From TrEMBL:
Name the record gives this protein: Fibronectin type-III domain-containing protein
Pfam families: Big_7
InterPro entries: FN3_sf, Ig-like_fold
Source species taxonomy: Bacteria, Bacteria division WOR-3
Highest taxon of the lineage: Bacteria
Organism listed in the record: candidate division WOR-3 bacterium
Annotated stretches, region: Disordered: 253-272
Length: 364
């Protein structure tokens, strides 16, 4: 009996060892399966996908599955029949069964077709069949913008600014040779007076306007341009990739300053018809004056004993920034008054020639 028990024990041990050995030898041999591979816009503003053309940083997306789990997906590019790993393809992001590689196509040659594919590898080292091969034409944004067209720049070179000379609106049209995708340009404005060497960057990053001229106003640097002065300007165009070009340098001139006209349209009106004396003992005076150069205008306000400038006019207010004034009254009677405009360069109308007499109103 003891001998039989010993034999049975040995047989049991052999069976267990054989069984365990069989379990250890059983390994996974089922490879992963790639369901799909696509190329999509990465959402990066430099990315572009249109049919069989790609540009910038695009997303190559693989969906793969495996019975024990996909460990990694490797991407390969084929060009001139020489398969090579895609640069940076070890930096692949994973979300469940989706693997994404951000393909930086600017590292490749422009206007050549490239074919990309992928394989999936599981934890046991099994490799999937090669995915579908996607062939795309790579377009590299390697051309700088065109210089701003001189024919589009306003004011034209050597222009003399007559109308609205105090402020000038610069305008131009820019474009870029890259059309896949259309480039969103931005501009820097260089502006100065007296000499091209005095130009400095006045504004930067001005967004390109589609289908219209892009503009910039000199009021952003000088509220009023100086009469009889030359001004110089140019435009730097820049694409999203940092490549830039500069335009020709243009010049315009503000001519001799025009003096403001005499004030007009008085209120109360210049009339002999009497006005009821206001109970508060004050009256609001107003008038109109438009400077021909659109310069800023201030006013001096005079009261006199008679209708002419020889009738002892008295200055009652000065440096008025608006064409109005509220005046205290001395009682009923006849009042002679007149504002005298002065632009920001000190020019005034000739009082005796442009305003031979003062305005009048009567209070009773």
């Amino acid at each position: 009996m003891k001998k039989a028990s010993k034999v049975l024990s040995i047989l049991t041990t052999v069976v267990l060892v054989v069984g365990l050995t069989g379990l250890e030898c059983k390994t996974d041999t089922e490879p992963p399966v790639i369901q799909s591979i696509t190329i999509e816009d990465s959402g990066n503003y430099r990315a572009y996908v249109d049919g069989d053309s790609i540009k910038g940083i695009v997303s190559v997306i693989v969906n793969a599955s495996d019975n024990i789990g996909v460990k990694e997906v490797k991407f390969f590019v084929n060009q001139l029949e020489n398969w090579e790993p895609v640069p940076g393809s070890d930096s692949v992001t994973q979300q469940e069964d989706e693997f994404t590689y951000h393909w930086q196509t600017t590292l490749l040659e422009d206007s050549l077709e490239y074919t990309i594919c992928a394989v999936a590898i599981d934890e046991a080292g099994n490799v999937s069949d090669t995915s579908e091969k996607l062939t795309r034409l790579v377009r590299i944004p390697n051309l700088p913008p065109y210089p701003v067209c001189s024919d589009s720049m306003r004011p034209a070179d050597d222009a003399v600014i007559d109308d609205s000379a105090a402020v000038v609106l610069l305008a131009w049209w820019g474009s870029d040779p890259d059309t896949l995708p259309p480039q969103e340009l931005e501009y820097d404005v260089f502006f100065g007076k007296g000499s091209p060497n005095n130009m400095v960057k006045m504004d930067s990053g001005i967004a390109h306007k589609q289908d219209t001229l892009t503009t910039w106003s000199t009021i952003f640097t000088e509220e009023h341009l100086v009469p009889e002065t030359d001004y110089y300007w140019m435009i730097l165009s820049r694409d999203p990739y940092g490549q830039d070009t500069v335009s020709d340098t243009f010049k315009f001139t503000r001519p001799e300053n025009k003096q403001p006209p005499a004030a007009s349209s008085p209120d109360p009106p210049d009339t002999i018809a009497p006005i009821v004396y206001p109970s508060e003992g004050e009256i609001s005076l107003s008038w109109n004056c438009q400077d021909p150069d659109h310069d800023s205008v201030s006013y001096r306000l005079y009261l006199a004993d008679g209708p002419t400038w020889e009738d002892n006019p008295q200055l009652i207010a000065e440096d008025l920034k608006t064409a109005s004034y509220r005046m205290e009254l001395d009682g009923p009677g006849t009042y002679y008054w007149r504002p005298v405009p002065e632009d920001n360069w000190g020019a005034t109308p000739d009082s005796t020639a442009s305003s031979p007499q003062l305005w009048m109103f009567i209070l009773e």
